[in-house]
Amino acid sequence: MLHTSPARPPALAIGPAAPAPGRGAVDLTVVVPAYNEEHRLPRTLDTICRYLRSSPGRHAEWELIVVDDGSSDATAAVVRRAAEAEPRIRLLTPPAASPTAGSSARNHGKGHALRLGVLASRGRRVLLTDADLATPIEELASLHDRLDAGSAAAIGSRAHPQALIEVDQHPLRRLAGRAGNRLIRAVALPGVRDTQCGFKLFDGDRARAAFGRSRLDGWGIDVEILRAFRREGWPVAEVPVRWAHQEGSKIRPLDYGRVLLELLRLARRGVRERIGAGDRAVLLAYLLLSVLLYKGLWAHVGHRYLVDSGQDQNQWEWFFAVTAHHVLGLDDPFFTGLQNAPLGVNLMANTAMLGLAVPLAPVTALFGPGATWTLVLTCGLAGTAAAWYWLLRKRFVRARRAAALGGALCAFAPPMISHANAHPNFAVLFMMPLIIDRLLRLCEGTRVGRDGVVLGLFLTYQVFLGEEALLLAALGLVLFAAGYAAARPARARAALRPLARGLAVAVAVCVPLLAYPLLWQFFGDQSYHSVLHGPAGNSPRAFVEFAGRSLAGHQATADALAMNRTEQNAFFGWPLLALTAVVVVWLWRDPRVRALGWVALAASVLSLGRTIPVPWTGITLPGPWRALAHRPLFESVIESRVAMAAVPALGILLALACDRLCASAPAGPDGGGDGDGGGDGGGRGLRIAGWAAVTAALLPIAPTPFTTADRVPVPSFIADGTWRAHVPEGRTLVPVPLPSPGDAEALHWQTTAGLGFPLPGGYFNGPDGPDRTGVYGPQYRFTSALLAEVSRTGRVPRIRQEQRRAAREDLEYWRAGAVVLAPQPGDEALRVTLERLLGWQGEWIGGVWVWDVHGGT
User: Fold this and answer.
1) What does the alpha-carbon distance between residue 748 and residue 714 come to, in Å, rounded to a whole number?
2) Cα–chain center distance at 393
């Protein structure tokens, strides 16, 4: 998968006598980049030459190249005078800035100067040293020793425990340098303490190869070259040196920012090199499939609605909008009073998905929450598939085709597509493969501390994407661990200690980061302790049938076997289940296959719920979910969703089977049946039958595009801002009926109005009653319950004085500014009821009936 770009020939303007590399080789080339160094160079050149002349045994033949990087002082003249006394000194200069620039040239940067010097060198070994000789030239002997011992490069280190710092930097510069080194270790070169010390010795041929492929022109060149050596497997030794800070450093404060930009460029290039053309084609296919599924939303962004999402699209767009409102307004992102006034909503206790809503706040502010909704769903599905593809290629299979199919099933399986209608917290799961990979690293026990820290950060971020999805993933991982331990007990015991240590580190990272958010979630305003939803297990028939959104699905059949169209959590179809059973039997000797088969089976059985109805018999059996139904955290889980933990197991099993089929094919151009596998001599008939079975299992469950419709138009009373004349600041707008999980269109009104007014009622999770049990939607008051009943039945109730008094109290409680009734089925009954409750007729303004109530009744 590693592809390197062709070497870019450097733009050289070489001074006199610049022989081509490799001709007339010498023992050592010393390269000194120089920019306005007329005062330091005489001493530096004299010191280096005297040292090299004094060690003829080691440096019988040598050269010293000074690269004048566009100096505006007499640097070039100083070098020419030195070259008259010592012919082995050479001067190189970069090209002129322009044809009219005369002999002067602009400063290109340290990286450009070093590349110029190294590519012009002839040395079997090449030393790079700064013009200030902050590291004395005598330290070269230590670097030679490491190359003699087999290293390809030896780099001076000021951060090594045995390094001697004779004159230290200013504390601020020292702090910035340490922070930069930490960033470099985290992003590019883990394990290297000091990449920026300007004293490095390289094997000459390898240095010229690495610099020839380099691209950076600034201070980041050191990182780029060391990364190239590591990528090629050329050993690099970090050597402690003496070092003394020299006044007149050319590093300026802005250079730290430029180094950061170069690191980002380097990281981007590294990703492109690691992802070959075939991999990019797979990722593009995932993205195109995702765009195809959401083509209805993309056709008119922000003006189309997912038909099967119920009221969830309104809710999610409101979450994105309110998060952007709070973040850009520097308000608390964990709580808002814009819904459920005057009590508010605990956003941390809801599925606000702050991990995406916060970084996408600028997108929401510029293009609207509908754009964020469309972007999150589309890129989320594609990103989840890409993450699983990456994990499969890295950990499980060799064949690209196998990983592509496995990744597609993990992200686009029927349960995932069902939630992709309305629940991005269950469809956008790109962090799960990263978490699994880090857990597997911990089991290997190589860098337990570092991997534990990264795992802790990953888990923290996933909490802000979706906690219930993380809980279900943890359940699946526990099932896998149990199955694998039963299959390979010795290996499981060996992995237990580093895994436990790494998990302890991860917890130590998570606790301080999540302490406040979780305390707010479970103990803050409008927190609750569980959510009531009643028994919600899968029907056994749901596993062998096809989802309504699948190619072979029938909507009525699926609707009869699921809570709703966003909770079709099984529906794998009998061909995929049959194929999975065959794969488990076929690859039974692989302990991973046994463990994955156990995960799929156990998760499916658990998802049946507290009771298991036996189809067509009327018999009901107790389900294993009973053991978890009332446990903390699990009490709020809709048990049918546990089947989602089987999806990755099925995807990995499919990838393993396809990898075996690819491996049985004749080797391709790069060694595999599909271009990336290896042959094991399997028969052609087996391959044909195998691929036919895979096609028969996947084609019926292929997803079809989501159905969309035009949104209900927002009344002009809201859309054109007329509401401002009727809802004073600090007052609420009361839609009729009040927004609820069954009708949350008023949330769309609110986002259209730029969240300019609060709403009573709403669609959220909050507490109910003295025990603070979680419910969907607000606590009903007399008026909200009465209006909801009128909307449902279309009948006007008899209104007495006590009802009017209760309505007046409710409006005062909600701090109502205006009551608004939009055209809807049964609106005549609602209008008459409001007139009798309030005692006067409403005004028809901007397409709605309006009752101003902020002045009292």
Assistant:
1) 8
2) 18
CA angle 78, 83, 87 (to 5 degrees): 170
- DSSP helix/strand/coil, 115: helix
Q: How many residues does the chain have?
A: 857
This prediction has a pTM of 0.78
What's the N-to-C CA distance of the chain in angstroms?
A: 74
What's the pLDDT tens digit per position in 511-535? 999 999 999 999 999 999 888 777 7
Per-residue DSSP letters for 243-296? Answer: EE--SS----HHHHHHHHHHHHHHHHHHHHHHS-HHHHHHHHHHHHHHHHHTHH
Residues 6+ apart with CB under 8 A from 289: 382, 408, 412
Residue with tokens 């990364």: 227
Confidence (pLDDT) at 25: 87
Question: In terms of Cα–Cα distance, which of 139, 134, 110, 114 is closest to 126?
Answer: 114
The residues with which 6 forms a beta bridge, in sequence order, are none
* Cα–Cα distance, 186 to 164 (Å, whole number): 25
State how far the Cα of 344 lies from the Cα of 778, in Å rounded to an integer: 10
Radius of gyration of the chain (CA): 34
Of 541, 531, 652, 559, nearest in space to 604 by CA: 541
Torsion-angle region of 582 (φ positive above 0: left; ψ -120 to 50: alpha; else: beta) = alpha
Q: What is the DSSP letter of 727?
A: S
- Could you tell me the CA-to-CA distances from 342 to 232, 351, 414, 456 in Å, in that order? 63, 21, 40, 37
Identify which of 400, 436, 409 has the alpha carbon closest to the alpha carbon of residue 595: 436
CA distance 528 to 521: 8
| pLDDT on residue 321 | 97
Segment 743-788, tens digit of pLDDT: 999 999 999 999 999 999 999 999 998 888 989 999 889 999 999 9
Crossing angle (nearest 10°) for helices 277-293 and 400-412:
20
- Is the CB of residue 16 less than 8 Å from the CB of residue 68? no
d(CA 733, CA 91): 77
Express each pLDDT in 314-337 by its tens digit. Answer: 999 999 999 999 999 999 999 999
Q: Would you say 311 and 746 are in contact if contact means Cβ atoms under 8 Å apart? A: no
Mean predicted confidence (pLDDT) in 686-704: 95
How far is it, in rounded angstroms, from Cα 469 to Cα 624? 20
- 16-30, 132-146, 420-434, 563-577: which range is least confident on average? 16-30
Rounded-to-integer distance, Cα 69 and Cα 41, Å? 14
Order the strands of the 199-203 sheet from edge to edge: 13-14, 89-93, 62-68, 26-34, 123-129, 199-203, 153-157, 236-240
SS3 304: strand
pLDDT band at 182 (very low <50, low <70, confident <90, very high): low
Average pLDDT over residues 274-303: 93
Query: What Å distances lie between residue 82 and 22, 45, 88, 131, 450, CA to CA?
Result: 25, 8, 10, 14, 50
Provide CB contacts within 8 A for 674, sequence distance 6+.
399, 400, 401, 662, 665, 668
CA contacts within 13 A on the Cβ side of 751: 28
Dump pLDDT digits (tens) for 414-447. 999 999 999 999 999 999 999 999 999 999 998 9
d(CA 749, CA 756): 10
Q: What integer pLDDT is reported at residue 187 of this predicted model?
A: 55
Q: Which residue carries 């966003």 as its tokens?
A: 566
